[in-house]
Design a protein that fits this description.
mainly alpha
Length: 148
């Protein structure tokens, strides 16, 4: 019973985090997929939804490395995320913008927030490198087929 509870809590945490991170730069779809993988250990409904999400994640990975501009943009974005993490780590005081500032709300900032932002950027770099190695050749083949 305790195992099922922990699997459910972890799975739903990952699913909710993945959904929240979808519009943001980072591995939102992969985190959502991870949550479904965890939930599929205990729930049949999660197992049924696993394959479509996996296909969408692979399609997104192929699209992200199909052209050099996309690779460069992704690399620059991941680097920017790491840079923001370093900035937040080193200086939690931010310029006052609307209701935010001069300190980040709820004690956010400093090394706890900075380290998680840096980790997100490093994960994005890891996913990019993996996608280049695994999906770039596939994307090039598919592009060559459609071109001629």
């Amino acid at each position: 019973m305790a195992k099922k509870t922990w699997i459910t809590i972890l799975g739903w945490f990952l699913v909710v985090a993945g959904v929240i991170l979808m519009p943001l730069p980072g591995p939102g779809l992969l985190i959502l997929l991870s949550g479904l993988i965890v939930l599929s250990q205990e729930y049949e409904w999660a197992e049924r939804r696993l394959e479509p999400v996996k296909e969408k994640a692979i399609e997104g990975a192929k699209d992200s490395v199909a052209t050099y501009p996309r690779i460069v943009l992704t690399a620059l974005s991941a680097t920017a995320i790491v840079a923001v993490g370093v900035w937040v780590w080193s200086d939690p005081v931010v310029p006052e913008i609307w209701i935010v500032g001069p300190e980040l709300p709820f004690g956010l900032g400093g090394w706890p927030t900075g380290s998680t932002v840096i980790l997100s950027g490093l994960i994005a770099w890891g996913v990019l490198i993996y996608s280049i190695k695994v999906y770039r050749p596939v994307a090039l083949k598919e592009r060559a087929k459609s071109d001629g």
